[in-house]
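just leaving the lab so this will be short. below you get a single protein, a line of residues and a line of whole numbers that encode the local backbone shape. id like you to explain what the token line says about the fold, in plain words if possible. thanks a lot i owe you, the record is right below:

…
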Amino acid sequence: MLFCMDARIHLHILASGSKGNACVVEGPEGSVLIDCGISRRALFARAAELGVDMDRVQALLLTHEHSDHVSGVTVFCSTFAGTLHATAGTIAARSYLAGLPFSLVAPGDALEIAGMRVNVFSTSHDVADPVGYSFSCDGDRVGYCTDTGVLTDAAREELAGCRVLALESNHDVGMLKRGPYPAFLQARILGSGGHLSNDQAAAELDQLVTRDTETVVAMHLSDKNNRPSIAVRTLAEAVGAEAANSTFTEARTPDGTLSICAAAQAHPLSVW
């Protein structure tokens, strides 16, 4: 759990990976749930583990329609009275989403939810209409971008200078090429509509990390083609950070102003 005394927005990652994704962004007047790719029981259990009050969730935002991001939506929404937001392509791609009262969003849109401004930006993934989100309030900013083969210009604009940057760091290219995935799947992952590698994510930090950035979280790590220590080490080298523990699953710059960590599939994480 990472703390910032002056933060207005808090990030709670309940699950991140190919087996399910869900994240709560907590603002001054409530919270937003990004994606719901795990069961309602797991969602609430992990929220409770972090001390996150799910009764404060005012909206559900979807990034795209892959099952690891939306499989829990129907059950969650059966008892959820808040608003639902997704792109037209995402809603149309799943019949069970089309039957729910979603409000349409599109890249370039801005929403006001839970005391935060939520900006929608395009990502690059092999789905209908994928997006990422940035959140701002009183000068505090959190950026969330996973499941993208490249960063779009709009993504870079929204993510640069965020205090908390949650950025996909899916795979180590060497592990992927030596691993069990067939050639067609490797090509999909490595393509512009696939997933950011550790090296790609690290290369983006030169533009994205500023003096305002305090935490970078490596997201959506592959359980077969990556390791938290490899992802953190790769990102750390790009910003001059050093190991903050014996396993290199956390890193910190020598002046202590920037921390690097990795989200996990089954171990929730809060960044305050």
About this structure: The two ends are 7 Å apart (CA to CA). The chain has a mean pLDDT of 96.
